[in-house]
Amino acid sequence: MKKIAPSILSADFAKLGEEIHAVEKAGADWIHVDVMDGHFVPNITIGPPVVKSIKKVAQRPLDVHLMIQEPEKYIHDFIEAGADVVSIHPESTPHTQRALAMIRDAGAKASVALNPATPLFVLDHIWEDLDMVLLMTVNPGFGGQKFIPEMANKIQNLKKKIERMNPDILIEIDGGVSGDNIEKLSQAGADVFVAGSAIFGAEDYAVVITDMKSKI
Q1: 34 an active-site residue?
Q2: Residues pairing with 174 in the sheet
Q3: Number of domains observed in the structure of the chain
Q4: Residues lower than pLDDT 50 in the chain
Q5: Single pTM value for the model
Q6: 29, 131, 174, 191: the active-site residue
Q7: Which domain holds residue 103?
Q8: Catalytic residue among 29, 34, 63, 129
Q9: What pLDDT, on the 0 to 100 scale, is given for residue 36?
Q10: What's 94's domain CATH number?
Q11: For residue 146, what is the DSSP state?
């Protein structure tokens, strides 16, 4: 079943608990948490203490995207704080397979996140270590960016590879997802849709999420 994962990067942090309850009530399947360190990407967001606080109020799985250098140093901290799914970037560590094994060993689902220009062949020797692949459809660091059109082809190519190598792997996409393009992206093969400003920028979260679900 395909899933909508609102990104709290676009939420009002002054009332984050209320925002999470609101999107869950509106039909969110996962809560997407963007972790940035100011080194791997040009922005700084949150750490394990905030994830731990979110876990106390969230009723849906926490989908934690680590846009940080040397993620293996922090994987256990984020999973202990409540992460259910953890995505790491192969560009951020020389030991991608080890990091994925650490995630699974700690009891979470393991995912690799690929930047727009990162080729799919980096997945060639880790198919059995993956539960999900997160395709960035904008360059990471900031919310509210426009979807990169070429990424639709990348989703299709990834879907073909997954069907051959490990059909159980989910495809998540993050960046510029909206009600205008989500149907096309679903048809291309995406399973989980991260949406930030498209949801949190709307007056009625339920209207947006219901519309998205009707299109996927």
Answers
A1: yes
A2: 136, 194
A3: 1
A4: none
A5: 0.94
A6: 174
A7: 3-215
A8: 34
A9: 93
A10: 3.20.20.70
A11: P
